[in-house]
Backbone:
């Protein structure tokens, strides 16, 4: 619709849900499945796309799953679980955490090995087949993102960015938003500092977490129950970077709420 | 592109930045300006659009501004300001707050009269003309959203939802995301609880803050410095509601981080 003679008169991007992704099994060729699904619905990847993949299918393909039957709960897990929770589930949450941030009213907020702070270390039973399976976060979500990005480049010949997203709660606000736990090929933060506003005033504190905002946009089409675990954000300019999503994690020494 | 015979094969929405909004002055007819800008760039509003308006232009139009010269700092403001900050600025932050949540390392995290928890009660000098003016949050952002929504319905004959957005920091994570501080005509939360996933498992804790995610998507095109204070999210289904953005504010008794 636009070309050099007719540049767009306004900024615009599209958020496209990718349907047709089957139930993912351990060891599946996830990049191949994603490529086929995007092509199958007539929206093959293009250079510059941001491909957002929900954590759950990445973890399943990588085998980041635990059988409850294999878990022996520790005394601490038994105490925390009480009569309300499965102590084996609590045990897995504790194993995935390096620190407990809050433990109240049946809620366990932990810091994961990645440094992410979230409920239950991101350990989850929903969308996992079978009653005795738990899904963990990918061991290294940036590496997961890079593998998918590299495979798309090799097999489809196009250069995209990849974000691995997950659904997190927030202090002070009801409801979850999807955020970026892994990135490849996109700078997760956009630094507006030093830029000037319309009045020539230099912006002081203004670093936008664009990868989190893109993951949230993807959630709006992904809808947990309708099987859209992959989303394309198309037409949104971004800064290319290999720094990964860790730069979004606030250093403990700079955090007022740990 | 789609009709009853050819339903879309995949979910998709567009995020369209509205350019051409001039510098807003106190008393300006903001709905009229927004309508003209959207029409002027060839994207007039359509039924079902979500129109996202940044707080700053709403506050300016409503006159939610304070001249620093008119502010007499209290002893507390003088103490907090120390030698690093303007005590009049701190005084305005304190007046806009009903509680100080954290006060460390030059950062003042407060709870506003609306119940929002953010840095400096949302009081801000950037994008405000003149060196002696501060911009406050709108007194009642839901009412601001309703006024814009109603005016668009009356003047353009189309039914849209309106979100007033602002830029907030988060605990644990670097970088800001835009969130919804006021809403009209859209349910800010989407409740997935009770729905079943692909394996027939009932989703337990799953309420998505869709208004926050939409505001974040808008920020991606709004870009602080290029003068895009209005964004259209088009093609995204949402639940119509008059409940306003207050439902996104977590009750203090349910909050582990106040």
Residues:
């Amino acid at each position: 619709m636009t070309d050099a003679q007719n540049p767009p008169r306004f900024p615009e991007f599209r958020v496209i849900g990718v349907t047709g992704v089957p139930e993912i099994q351990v060891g599946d060729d996830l990049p191949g499945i994603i490529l086929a699904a995007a092509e199958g619905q007539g929206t093959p990847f293009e250079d510059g796309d941001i491909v957002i993949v929900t954590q759950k299918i990445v973890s399943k393909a990588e085998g980041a799953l635990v059988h409850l039957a294999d878990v022996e709960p520790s005394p601490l897990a038994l105490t925390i679980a009480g009569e309300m929770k499965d102590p084996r589930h609590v045990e897995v949450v504790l194993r995935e955490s390096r620190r407990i941030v809050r433990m109240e009213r049946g809620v366990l907020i932990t810091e994961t090995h990645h440094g992410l702070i979230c409920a239950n270390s991101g350990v989850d039973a929903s969308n996992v087949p079978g009653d005795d399976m738990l899904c963990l976060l990918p061991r290294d979500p940036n590496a997961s993102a890079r593998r998918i990005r590299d495979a798309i480049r090799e097999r489809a010949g196009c250069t995209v960015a990849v974000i691995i997203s997950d659904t997190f709660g927030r202090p002070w606000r009801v409801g979850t938003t999807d955020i970026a736990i892994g990135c490849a090929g996109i700078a997760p933060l956009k630094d507006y500092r030093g830029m000037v506003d319309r009045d020539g005033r230099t912006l002081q504190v203004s670093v936008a977490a664009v990868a989190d905002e893109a993951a949230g946009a993807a959630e709006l089409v992904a809808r947990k129950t309708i099987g859209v675990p992959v989303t394309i954000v198309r037409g949104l300019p971004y800064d290319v970077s290999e720094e990964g999503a860790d730069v979004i994690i606030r250093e403990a020494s700079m955090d007022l709420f740990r």
